[in-house]
Amino acid sequence: MDLSQLAGNAALKRQLEAESARRGLSHAYILSGSAGSGRRTLARVLAAALVCDGAEPEARPCLACSGCRKVLAGIHPDVNYTGTDGRDITVAQVRALRSDAYIRPNEAARKVYVVINAQTMNPSAQNAMLKLLEEGPAYAAFLLLTDNAAALLQTVRSRCETLSLSPVTLLEAEDYLLRRFPDKPEAEVRAAAGRCEGLIGRAVEELSGAEADESRAREGAITLLERFVGGDELSLMEYAVSLEKWDRDSLSSLFGETVLLLRSALVLRAGGGCGETDPQRLCVAREAADKCSANMLLSAVDTLEKLRAATLYNAGAGHLAGWLCAALMSEK
Ligand SMILES: [Zn+2]
C-alpha cells in the first residue's frame, strides 16, 4: 500500500499495511488527530485505495489509474465529502448520506463517504451514522475524521478501526515540505517547518497562503498602476475602495510591489533596461514611463513608501485606501 503521501506516522503506516495485506481494508475507519496532522491526506489515500482499479489489491492505491487520479483531484463521483463547511453535521445530513449510500456506485466498485469533523455529529446524528455503519451496503466505506475520537459514541467507535495520526518530527516535516514546495526559498520552508510543531498541515497552509497573498499583491500592483496611468479618477477610486477589505500585511505587499513597478518605469524612462521579465509587468511599466513625468513617478513612489510605513502602525485599511486615492489623484 503506497502511503508515501503521508509524512511521518511510521507506526500507523505499518499497522495499515499489515492489516490491508492480511484482510483488505476495513469498511469504516476513524482518522483521529489534531488539525494539520494529515487526516485529510490519509483519507484521500484510503479513498483512492478503495476505488483504485489499476492495481492488484495489495498494491492499491496505484495513484496512477483514472480512479486514483480523480480522488487526488477531488472529483471522483463515488467519493463523497460531508462536513466541509465547518458547521455541525446534522441528522438530516446523515440521513441524506444514507439514502445516497443505497444508490450503487457510478464507476468504482466502492463508494466512499468522508465525514470531516465527525465529532460535531450530535447523538441522534451519530445514531443514524451507527445504523449506516451496521446495515449499509457492503460496497460503502466510511472515513470519519475527528480531532477528538472520545466525542464519538462508544457504539460508533466499536464499529470502526481507529487510525491515530501523530505530529511528525522536524526532519520529516522539512523533508516533506521541501518536496511539496520546490520553488520556495529553502530557508522560508525550513522556518515554516520549525514553526508548525509537527503538524504539517499548518505549514502547508502558511506556505500556500503566503503564495496566494504574494500573487494577489503582484496582480494588485499591476491594476493599481494601470488605473493610475491610464484610467479615469473614478476607476482609480473604485479600486482604492476595494482595498478596504484587504488586511494590512497584504496592503503592505501591494504597496511594495507597486513601488517596484514604479521604479522599473523610472529606469525605462531614463533609457535603461529595467529587468522586468513578466510581459504584463513590463507592459504596464513601459506605459507608465511613456505617460508620466519623472516627477509624477517619484512622488507616487514617495506616497506609496509612506503608505507602506503606515501599514506598520495600525492604520486601518479604509483610511489607507482613502489616503492612496487622494494622494495619487493629486499627483495626476
Ligand atoms: Zn489506482
UniProtKB/TrEMBL annotation:
Give a GO biological-process term: DNA-templated DNA replication
Organism (species): Lawsonibacter faecis
Question: According to the lineage, what is the superkingdom?
Answer: Bacteria
**Name this polypeptide is given:** DNA polymerase III subunit
